[in-house]
Amino acid sequence: MTNDPKILGLAFLGGVVPSLLWLWFWLKEDNQKPEPKGILAVVFIMGMIAVVFILPIQKFIQAHVSSDQWELVLWASAEEIIKYLAVLVIIYKTNHADKPIDWPIYLITSALGFAALENTLFLIKPFSMGQNTVGLLTGQLRFLGSTLLHTVSSGILGIALGISLHIDGLKRKWYLVVGFIFAITLHSVFNFFIIRNSGNDFLKVFAFLWVVTIIVMLLFEKVRRMN
């Protein structure tokens, strides 16, 4: 990995700016009683830090799991869990998540922080090799694909938690489990078709991802009105 500060700076900007644009989009949907910007900034940074923890976990999975399909499922599971924990460690036993919309907002913020650093790491190699055009294209594709995937998958979990906010007992735990199942399934399917299928069906996958995004936006609006 290069130590050139210019390349690292460009890669960082290329990774962070798309995530901040997406974050601006989602935050403006919650304009009635927005969350404290300081807490959101901390959650975003925690999402970035989560990448540091996920890398050794993914290497361990890669070294000890022989099935490609299970490897992708475990990768997706680890990422979704650690993005959730990045939020939980900040707002656990606080009153920062006292409205249904708060959970999707915080989880989407964590996911975008995660995507920001992940995208930065992907951009370093092409920029360090002087392939700026490739790097920019990589950034654009990840802006449309991977960044959106992290946002939507965590958004699904956040919506499930938001809907169950005022539900007590076992039923609320079921919402958490179902939210994780949907998030991990979406993440795993995307990884399978993009990584293992060499991106041959990427247009179909991107179209499917945007359909899911529209559904999540509609559910997001429903949760927002629950406030």
TrEMBL record:
The chain crosses the membrane at residues 6-27, 39-61, 73-92, 104-124, 144-167, 174-196, 202-220. One of its GO terms (molecular function) is peptidase activity. Signal peptide: none annotated. This is Protease PrsW. PANTHER family: PROTEASE PRSW (PTHR36844:SF1). Keywords: Membrane, Transmembrane, Transmembrane helix. It comes from the Bacteria. It comes from Candidatus Nomurabacteria bacterium RIFCSPHIGHO2_12_FULL_37_29.
